[in-house]
Amino acid sequence: MLPCGIDAALLLAGVCAAAGWLTYRRLAKRRRRLLRELFTAAAAAAGVCGDPAAVLVIQANRSSEPELGRLIAAAPRSWPVVLAGPGWLAELKSAAWGRPVGLMSSLSPGGGALRDGTYAAIRRGGRFELVHELLPYMQRLGRDWSQVGDESPSADADEAAGRLLQ
Amino acid sequence: MQLEHAAAWLCDYLMAAIFAASVFGKIRAMTDARLEISGHGLLLERLVPGAAWTVLAGEAALAAAFGIGGLLEGVKEPAAIAALAAMSGLTWRRGRRSAAGPQRQCGCFGANHPLGRRPLLRNAILIGIAAAGWLLPRPAASASDLVVFALAVLAAVWLLEALKLHTETGGAASASQGRAWLGLHARRASARGQADAAVRD
């Protein structure tokens, strides 16, 4: 017990909890800011007007998966695609997937899983959810895209995605 | 304080912090948690959301049981061991099934990392800790002890989450530096897409 009547262990635990909370809040804010900037930059890259509902980030070594590639090509045009890999690969993938592909490479000089992972970043109100199980997630969404292809990939996909993302 | 009492509380503390952090991580990524359960291929698709919430509730109950002294005494440890053994079995099975596939990710404990031996080793260590805590005697905790314990568990959970966020965001990141580059490339890609469409038309 401290002279002021406060239990020393209680004080120490309280200080640790407050420090943990403040550290968490600071990093959560940084993550939110980075994702907000990623959404803005990726939307500009893809020529999407307004705030996109989701951004697809693809790691270079996953970009060659045929099933994932097929789903990315069929995904809503309002979902910008960003490649975490070299510029020449982004050029190739842009042609293969038939849509603009942004490049992550210099987004975050400090590195981190946001820059190097394969995931869908989904905006849910003021916060963001990352879905790392991208292939099953896209497959599940894709089941509801009744018409996909070069002619009208976005209308049905956007409608289905909007419903499923709720 | 006797050494074995301190060891028993340390075991409880570790288990409470691990399960609470898992609940926290899963709440932040419920879609991943549902897809993880669905990926095991053991449940019908319509049962998966309910199963995800059941797993979450079970982990929350275990975190509370370990965090509050005297709660579910003699039951929580075997329950935790059974839960960890089941998770290990499912992780091992999924690892074997996806060994040839390109996607080997594990969403265990609400964190995303490569599916390998690490989750199994970690679960084995946690099973050992739970078993040790089961065997060790402990005195009844006072109200102030419980408050200290709960605050310490919260501190651990927030610090673990902060560690995860630090891994995600890297060091001091400056996104604006890359935005110009991304935009430049994008304009090029967008222009090429329009040109391709024009050629097709």
Concise account of the structure shown:
The complex is a heterodimer of chains A (about 170) and B (about 200). Chain A is an alpha/beta fold.
Question: Can you tag this structure with a few keywords?
Answer:
heterodimer, A: 166 residues, alpha/beta, 5-stranded mixed beta sheet, 14% strand, B: mainly alpha, 7 helices, globular, disordered C terminus
Task: Tell me about this structure.
The complex is a heterodimer of chains A (166) and B (201). With 166 residues, chain A is an alpha/beta fold. Chain A has helices at 8-46, 66-74, 87-97, 113-116, 134-142, 154-164; strands at 54-59, 81-84, 101-103, 119-124, 127-131. Chain A has a five-stranded mixed sheet, sandwiched between helices. In chain A, helix 2 (66-74) links the parallel strand 1 (54-59) and strand 2 (81-84). The termini of chain A are far apart. Residues 147-154 of chain A have low confidence and may be disordered. Chain B is an all-alpha fold. Chain B has helices spanning 3-28, 30-39, 48-67, 76-97, 117-135, 143-169, 175-200, and strands at 105-106, 113-114. Chain B has a two-stranded antiparallel sheet with strand order 1-2. Mean pLDDT of chain B is 79; it is low at 173-201.
As residue ranges, the low-confidence spans of chain B are: 173-201
Q: What Rg of chain A, in angstroms, do the CA atoms define?
A: 20 Å
Order of helices and strands of chain B: HHHHEEHHH
| Sheet with the most strands, sense and barrel status of chain B | 2 strands, antiparallel
Mean pLDDT of chain B: 79
> Which word captures the global form of chain B?
globular
Strand proportion of chain A: 5-15%
Strand content of chain B: under 5%
**SSE topology string of chain A:** HEHEHEHEEHH
- List the uncertain runs of chain A: 147-154
How many structural domains can be distinguished in the coordinates of chain B? Answer: 1
Span from first to last CA of chain B?
82 Å
As a percent range, the share of helical residues of chain A equals 40-55%
Q: How many domain modules of chain A?
A: 1
Shape of chain A: elongated
Oligomer: heterodimer
Q: Give the averaged pLDDT of chain A, no decimals.
A: 80
Biggest sheet strand line-up of chain B: 1-2
Largest interface (CB within 8 Å) is between: A-B, 67 and 55 residues
Question: Which strand order do you get reading across the main beta sheet of chain A?
Answer: 3-2-1-4-5
